[in-house]
Design the sequence.
């Protein structure tokens, strides 16, 4: 009779690795946590050593040509900003019109008579010279936000539009003018006046007139400080 075979010895299972011991951390109570917090505040805090950050590798130094190019770019940008910030120069065309201020004062005894003479003279051909020769120097300074060059272009365009409708054939002043006083500085006082009315053109167009006049001295002539002829000259 054959001997019995011990199968457990032949087919033995491989040995398994011994598991690591498990550490059990017992939870602290709220009182213990607060106590530890108080103790950590009372103790001098230990400075943490965070180490050093790895610096990035530095690039190469600029060449002379690259430095010159950067300097040229900065100088050009600064010049462009300076030119843009400078006020626009007054053109020779506008300077000529400014020089005509009060060159035609007239001998009108009153403000209303001067206004009638001025509007009829300007409305003959609606030429800019006829208007600018009767304006007060204040006319060029009453709108600081509007450059004199732009003011000249606006007046020329408005009078060209009026000339297309023909000369002024009728003028009506509404009521007596209103007077006022304007302080010009250094103790100088000027008289101001405002008139309203309407102007009729040759083709039947009727437009409203609103003008402000200024007189520096009773011996000086009146001058137009502002004039509105909507919709042509707002």
Sequence:
């Amino acid at each position: 009779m054959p001997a019995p075979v011990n199968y457990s010895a032949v087919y033995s299972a491989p040995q398994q690795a011994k598991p690591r011991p498990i550490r059990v951390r017992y939870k602290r109570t709220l009182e213990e946590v607060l106590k530890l917090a108080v103790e950590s505040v009372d103790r001098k805090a230990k400075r943490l050593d965070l180490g050093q950050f790895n610096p990035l590798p530095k690039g190469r130094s600029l060449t002379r040509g690259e430095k010159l190019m950067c300097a040229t770019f900065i100088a050009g940008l600064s010049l462009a900003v300076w030119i843009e910030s400078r006020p626009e120069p007054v053109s020779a065309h506008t300077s000529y019109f400014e020089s005509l201020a009060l060159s035609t004062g007239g001998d009108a005894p009153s403000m209303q008579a001067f206004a009638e003479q001025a509007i009829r003279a300007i409305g003959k051909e609606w030429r800019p010279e006829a208007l600018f020769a009767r304006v007060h120097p204040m006319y060029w300074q009453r709108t600081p936000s509007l450059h004199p060059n732009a003011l000249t272009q606006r007046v020329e365009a408005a009078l060209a539009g009026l000339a297309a409708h023909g000369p002024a054939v009728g003028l009506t002043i509404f009521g007596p003018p209103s007077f006022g006083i304007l302080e010009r500085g250094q103790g100088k006082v000027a008289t101001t006046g405002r008139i309203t009315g309407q102007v009729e053109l040759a083709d039947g167009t009727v437009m409203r007139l609103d003008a402000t006049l200024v007189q520096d001295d009773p011996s000086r002539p009146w001058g137009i400080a502002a004039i509105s002829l909507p919709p042509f000259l707002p």
